[in-house]
């Protein structure tokens, strides 16, 4: 899958979060829930080494900040003791706290999962979970213990209905909100631009003008930029951006983004305005150019991970 490998950048951030054991306490998560907040991508590992313990019930919540709408998960290790109906040890990842009771078990070694993810193409093995909260839970008994789980996750963007798209396969050009300079952008305007450069090139985007409604977490009107990718590496028409590595988080107000440089040769630009037509502003105008790649190669191993910034979350 050569086209996938350039999605990734090599900047990694490592954060170690312990299991705090705070939050709610009931029969689903008697020892509480550990919150993972403000992370837009990361790697989740439990336990960090060795095997998980006896009689454990650990719960985590990954908070999905607005205007993002969910997360995608890829498994890199899944070794949970197998029993009928998973009544021994069980792991669950779900968008509903109540559904944490229904988990999965079984053993898929890292080698097998790497083989499987590579065979399918990383994006086709992505498990999608929608909503503003994603819960993880591991429950174990006191018999056999295995090495647990390792997953990477990336936050999911909203995307407009198909048809509201522009595809630009040119080495330089300009994009803007409609009637830029003479009118404010319209309400309910949702559009995605795909900027495509030749293989081996990178894309640079410069903002000449930027004026959007300011709102908390940019929930109302925003512009966001991610790397684009082929959902199925064999079908180049199936291009997407909602799970691509984040180049610019949703932006609003007059905080004009700095220059954006892609790692790969395909970029997804997404503009969204809400239905309130009394709060539309001037909009944005940007130019883009592509140039030959400066960084030579990104290691093949990182192509299996969708992350720009890699956060390791472990628990004691
Ligand atoms: C985790 O988040 C939930 C929901 O916002 C909150 O009720 C709980 O107190 C948080 N726990 C910790 C340890 O911050
Ligand atoms: C695990 O829980 C079972 C049932 O409650 C108990 O009999 C056993 O002693 C516990 N084992 C450990 C190692 O805590
Ligand atoms: C992609 O194409 C390769 C080679 O033609 C094939 O082996 C592979 O199964 C295809 N992958 C998918 C997901 O269709
Ligand atoms: C863009 O077009 C050129 C030929 O004009 C082609 O070589 C290149 O692969 C195309 N890029 C993408 C991403 O489709
Ligand atoms: C639109 O935004 C304005 C200014 O924030 C606000 O006063 C008004 O209530 C909003 N209208 C709707 C329909 O939400």
Helix content class? under 10%
Question: Which H/E pattern describes the elements?
Answer: EEEEEEHEEEEEEEEEEEEEEE
Tell me the major beta sheet: 6 strands, mixed
Poorly predicted regions are 1-22, 296-316
Structure classification: mainly beta
Output the radius of gyration: 21 Å
Number of strands: 21
- Kindly report how far apart the N and C termini lie: 36 Å
Overall morphology: elongated
What compounds are bound to the protein? 2-acetamido-2-deoxy-beta-D-glucopyranose
- The residue-averaged pLDDT reads 83
The fraction of residues assigned to DSSP E strands is 35-45%
Number of helices: 1
Keywords: Disulfide bond, Repeat, Signal
Protein name: Bone morphogenetic protein 1
Pfam families: CUB (PF00431)
Signal peptide: 1-25
What does this structure look like?
- By secondary structure, this protein is mainly beta.
- The chain contains 1 helix and 21 strands.
- It has one helix spanning 110-120; strands at 34-36, 41-46, 57-63, 70-80, 90-94, 106-108, 127-130, 133-139, 148-156, 165-168, 172-176, 190-196, 201-211, 222-227, 229-230, 239-240, 246-251, 260-261, 266-272, 283-292, 312-313.
- Strands 2, 4, 6, 7, 9 and 21 form a 6-stranded mixed β-sheet that branches. Strands 10-12-19-14-17 form a 5-stranded mixed β-sheet, with no helix packed on it. The protein has a 4-stranded mixed β-sheet with strand order 1-3-8-5, with no helix packed on it.
- The protein is elongated.
- Residues 1-22 and 296-316 have low confidence and may be disordered.
- One 2-acetamido-2-deoxy-beta-D-glucopyranose (NAG) binds next to loops.
